[in-house]
Fold ABC transporter permease.
Amino acid sequence: MIRFILNRLLMALPTIALVAVTVFALIRLIPGDPAALMLGDMAQPDQVAAMRIELGLDKSMIQQFVIWAGNVLQGDFGRSIVNGEAVLPLVASRFLVSAEIVVIAVLLASVIAVPAGVIAAWRQNSLTDLALVGTATVLLSIPTFWLGLLLLLLFGLKLGWLPVLGYISVGDNIASGILYLVLPIMTLVIHEMGVLIRMARASTLEVLRLDYITHARAKGLSESAVLWRHAFKNAFGPTWTVIGLILGNLLGGIAVIETVFTIPGLGRLMVDSIFARDYPVIQGCLLFVALSYVLVNLVVDLLYPFFDPRVVAE
């Protein structure tokens, strides 16, 4: 087990290094001079030159990367061009807002969708199976922004049950904060349930065809015991991997939901920074999202042996 953990940790290091190089290169590949773009069309040549020196753009690409990477390792992501605020605390505070929504949504979707997928596999080709698979396909096909707008229209404007726009932190006011989180979380839950139902059904069907399931049934165990005590744990392994991928993807791709519901999360910060041409913040957001994705998948890999011990043996 220790060897397995060390191998996964060592494999994550080159990935993190590649992520850092990619993020650095993406910002530098944006057309135009970043200094000139930040200062605007009315900037004088001496102002542009001073900004290039301040940003370290007068140095070679390798020197720029070494300086930037060294600062990042010390927790210095730079400062925002727009307001001069330190990038790391800004990104971290916005990330907590996004993580609050994403983690709750993924947990709720998993609790609902995984048992539904297992039941669909257990009742394969029945009316229940067809209904669950059909529902999952429909949910998977609905764009999240459109679904969010529909929920806003129904529960916000028509029924008036939930707030339409704005955001209040749960830490400031628990009751009001929860109300503002209901619709974005509901949107993500409904959409991601489609993926998880289909995955849980497919992995459970594969396990139910194995010999040890036939043996368990031959011993006279009830179908519910065979399904939940013997099949579920092995079937959950692939679904657990998908849950990790969904969590990582949502942490990086929640900008649409945050824009629809005007939530000040990491995605919204990235969109606003792109429009403001705030390159240090854009770079910090991209790096934070990429590292989060790598770390989430690392945790998924480390926990996978609990669902399938054969992974450690291999």
